[in-house]
TrEMBL record:
The active site is at T22, T101. This is Type II asparaginase. SMART domains: Asparaginase (SM00870). PANTHER family: 60 KDA LYSOPHOSPHOLIPASE, L-ASPARAGINASE. The keyword Hydrolase applies. Residues 225-335 form the Asparaginase/glutaminase C-terminal domain. The keyword Hydrolase applies. It comes from Campylobacter gastrosuis. Belongs to the asparaginase 1 family. Its EC number is 3.5.1.1. Keywords: Hydrolase. It comes from the Bacteria. Residues 14-205 form the L-asparaginase N-terminal domain. One of its GO terms (molecular function) is asparaginase activity.
Amino acid sequence: MLITATTALAKPTIYILATGGTIAGSGSGELSSSYTSGVVTVDKLLAAVPQINEIATIKGEQISQIGSQEMNNEVWLKLAKRTNELLNSGKADGVVITHGTDTMEETAYFLDLVVKSDKPIVMVGAMRNSASMSADGPLNLFNAVNVAISKDAVGKGVMVTMNDEIHAAREVTKTHTTGVDTFKSPNTGKIGSVFYGNVKFYMSPTRKHTINSDFDITKITELPRVDIIYSHANDNADFVEIALKNGTKGIISAGMGNGNPYPSVLNALQNGAKSGIIIVRDSRVGAGETTRNGEVNDDEMGFVASDNLNAQKARVLLMLALTKTNDRAKIQEIFYTH
Ligand code: ASP
């Protein structure tokens, strides 16, 4: 292609906000499975993919340098506020966030609910560290920038781009501990694909997100404590009791099957609901809806049903819902619309 002054001027500006993770990890050798997350700086990450400078004006910023297993509310709020600022001031046409894969789905959903812009926000990571043979980070990053500059990506909320696929923030989850094809959207499937920079979308997320979501974090500096409690056969109520005693504001019950907790756990959860704590009945299964008033009578017990969010995403949504209301019916409505 002939590069003219006009095409050069027309290049979109994409900010790469780096947070750490395996994409910024480095190990002891090409074939070693041992490595440390988040040690490679944003400048080095970008230098590994010079091709992105041909399609966009790239600016890099280091938000944090952590493995995403260390992700926390403070980094989430910093990342969300910076993304809002960049997109709404007109400084950026799109934002790409490099992130560890462990909690990428939680950060993606958090941002999807609180960023007030319809410009593309693309999260990307890697399953193989930068020193590994066939590292997947550089091509994933190249693809993520291509999604961020795509006109078709406008209005799709936060997306996760990995392994040539584009997933919507609400739907995507990590499904394999080591495979490069780890990210899947079990309830809906991917929304698009990106093959060596060639972006194609097949569908759009329909739940409320970004400019249409109910949440605004402009004035928020802290998020309420919400715990996840995982169910199993021959369970006991200890973790529920400890969470209640330690001041939790909400519990996501990752129940068996269609959200069924063990009897003693159910009893403890009901006591929690009676004392005003919001209990969201969810499932440990990983796909499908936890249906209201199925084997558990949510109306009678005072519970909220999670719709088809997995437990870690239900936790994100409940934290944000609790910044607005403590009313169970309103929170149930939030779960059915976001
Ligand atoms: N533990 C790493 C992280 O989430 C794994 C990865 O990035 O793939 O930061």
